Structure formats: C-alpha cells, structure tokens
Amino acid sequence: MGQANIEKEEWRPLFRMLCLEALGLQSRDLLLLDETRLTESEILKALHIIKELKKQRPIQYILGECDFMGLRFLINESALIPRPETEELIQYILEERAEDITLLDVGTGSGCIAISLAHGIPSAEVHAMDLSEEALILAKANAEKLECNVIFHQDNMHEPSAEYPQFDMIVCNPPYITEKEKVFMESRVLDHEPDLALFIPDDRPLQSYEGLISFSQSRLKKNGLLFLEINEALGKETIELLKSNGYECNTPRKDIYGKDRFIRAVKG
Question: In angstroms, rounded to a whole number, what is the distance separating the alpha carbons of residues 95 and 15?
Fold first, then answer.
C-alpha cells in the first residue's frame, strides 16, 4: 500500500473524531459528517490538528483542554497532562470521607488534583503549591473556570518561604521518573511535557519524597495524612524512607495497570 493511501485512510476517521472534539459538533452531526458541511476555517483547524499530531504533539496540548475527574481542564505545555492513574489517587483520597479539613497539593501543575479535591470535599480549605509561575497561571485559570476556591502559593518545597497553616492532609504527585528511564518513554512525552515535573537524578531517586517529608514535618498535623503517587520500582524504598521519618504506612496500593502507585502515610 502506498504512502498516499495510508495517509488518506488514516486521515478520514481522525478528521471525523477531531471535528467532534475540536469543532464543537454533536454526535448526531458526526454520524452525518461530510467535509462539504464544514466552513473553510473549520477544515483548516482540523487539518492543523492532524499536522500537529504527526509531530507527536499530544492531543491535549493541541486542543488546550483535557478531561479529569469529570471536569474539563485547560492544559498547556507548562504542566503535565493529567493521567488516569492520578484520578485513582483522587478516588483513594475521597475514600477517607473527610470533611472540614485543610489540605495542600504540592506541585499542583494544572491544578487538577487540588481542584478535583475541592469539588469532592466542598467543606475543605484547599491550598496548592508550585514552583513554576507558568503552571500557577494555568492552575488559577482552571480554578476560575471551574468556579473553585483554591489558595495558591508559588514556592519550593525544598526551600519553602511562604507561610502555611497546619494541614490535615498533604497530597503530592512529584517528579519520580529517573533519568535512565527516559529510554522507555515516548517522544510525545519527552519532547513536549515539562522535564521539571517528570524527572529526578539517577543517584537520588527519592529526592522528591525526601523534600516532601522535610517540608511536612512542621506543617502536617500529628496523625495527618500524606498521600503520594510513586515510582512503581521504588515502593519498598519509599515506604522505608517514610517509616524512618516517623510515618506509618502499609504496602503501596496498585493502579489500574497492577503497578505499585500510591502510598497513604500517617504522621506519628
């Protein structure tokens, strides 16, 4: 089969799918879609999307939006694209049935964790921290768009400077992928998503958790909860680190792919 035929066959279903997503068409319109029903600007927009996809740019960044926990978030290259596994982290936290708590999301990125928890626990006082000014601009835009009250802090958990209350819960999905693991990752991630939110040095694979524990020592209440997303290969080491710093925690909880992914720790 020639290259022209391959592109034509791939283009048509992709064009139809993206018209529904990007051009605001209804499902019933999609079933009857004919290119002649679209305006020239709509066709150009769809063709631009296909061109960007061929460059391995993630569809979420192309569209500027993504779905997470039933909410529609703005997204751009300043923050990671929210993953399905992180939705599982939110569900894990909501199982606590907590009310009237004060919680902090460390490394908030797009704000998807903090905002989802604010929706799921309406009585909570929700704070969110990130070092990146660009990410915080995005997170604040999402909080405004989704009519959600979150208190944002531009700060570094390794060298914090802002004032914080005592928290009942701290949540963190930190960078936890080692540099050597890059060889297993797709170019659409490596070339477009922020390295700062993804990678840690090979010689200090628990660096993020060391910083978070240090930050939490004086800011998490006794018996307060620490929820973490972790590197599947470092579950045992992460638990040992937590226990050596006075936290009680059990075997990591697995994600939908059967990988060790989440830890719930209680501060002693």
Answer: 40
Which strand (E) or helix (H) includes residue 73? strand 71-74
Domain edges within the chain: 3-54, 68-267
Nearest one of 143, 146, 140, 96 to 121, comparing CA atoms: 96
Which residues have a Cβ under 8 Å from the Cβ of 9 and sit 6 or more positions away? none
Tokens standing for residue 221: 């209440």
Confidence of residue 54 (pLDDT cuts 50, 70, 90): confident
Q: Which residue has the higher pLDDT, 62 or 29?
A: 62
Contacts for 153 with CB less than 8 Å, ≥ 6 apart: 127, 128, 129, 130, 162, 164
pLDDT tens-digit map of 122-180: 999 999 999 999 999 999 999 999 999 999 999 999 999 999 999 999 999 998 888 78
Per-residue tokens: 237: 């080491």
| DSSP alpha helix (H) spans, the chain | 3-22, 27-31, 40-54, 59-63, 84-94, 112-120, 133-145, 187-190, 207-217, 235-244
Task: Name the residue with tokens 């035929």.
Answer: 5
Helix, coil or strand: residue 268: coil
Fold of 68-267: Rossmann fold (3.40.50)
pLDDT confidence of residue 34? 52
